[in-house]
Design a protein that fits this description.
By secondary structure, this protein is of the alpha/beta class. It has one domain: 3-Layer(aba) Sandwich (Rossmann fold). The chain is 35% helix and 16% strand. The chain is built from 8 helices and 6 strands, in the order βαβαβααβαβαβαα. The radius of gyration is 16 Å and the shape is globular. Bound molecules: flavin mononucleotide (FMN). Flavin mononucleotide binds next to helix 1 and strand 4.
Length: 209
Amino acid sequence: MTRSASETPYVLVLFYSRHGATQEMAQQLAAGIESVAGIAARLRTVPPVSPTTEAVDPEIPAEGAVYATLDDLRHCHGLALGSPTRFGNMASPLKYFLDTTSELWMNGALTDKPATAFTSTASLHGGQEATLLTMLVPLLHHGMVYAGVPYRETQLLTTRSGGTPYGTSHLAGAKAERELDVDETALARAQGARLGCLALAMRSLHEEA
Ligand SMILES: Cc1cc2nc3c(=O)[nH]c(=O)nc-3n(C[C@H](O)[C@H](O)[C@H](O)COP(=O)(O)O)c2cc1C
């Protein structure tokens, strides 16, 4: 089930960020999405998880994006999924949220919608591509159509930091000392704009008439 055609379509930028680097990327992707006329970006995050489960986080976080709901995901027209790299994979809070999406999977709610992924690492060869490739797997299970970053974005050939054809990435540094640089910013924006265009173009595949 999707929203009716009259409501403004949006791309969900769903991310987890502990120290802010992935959040910075999410904001650049959102700016790219919003550069496309006719589509909005909706920024949402997920709460942290801990080995002890007695404490429950407040429903609204103290700062930043609000927590995602299944309805945010159900009604999106595209998805940008962002996570810090953790041992070459997405962070567990994001995986935990995705593990609650069985109902959407059973109903095919995300099928034929475009998706992309982005990540941030401490080190240059610390697993950016591995993380992006592992992040796309659950999206394929949901029937989403994965879109990376095409080589027409020439920064892919010249970047000395983040940026991959599998999705964008950011080298934050061992002490999180690096801001997004010019190439990383341009690639994240281009990735967002491309996803926005694809979301509009693919709308008729899954939206009710
Ligand atoms: C448990 C854990 C595992 C991590 N694994 C990696 C890794 O495999 N490669 C890497 O370069 N950085 C690794 N990092 C560092 C984070 O990916 C990096 O600091 C990232 O920029 C944090 O993003 P954030 O500011 O959005 O939280 C790890 C950090 C933690 C806490």
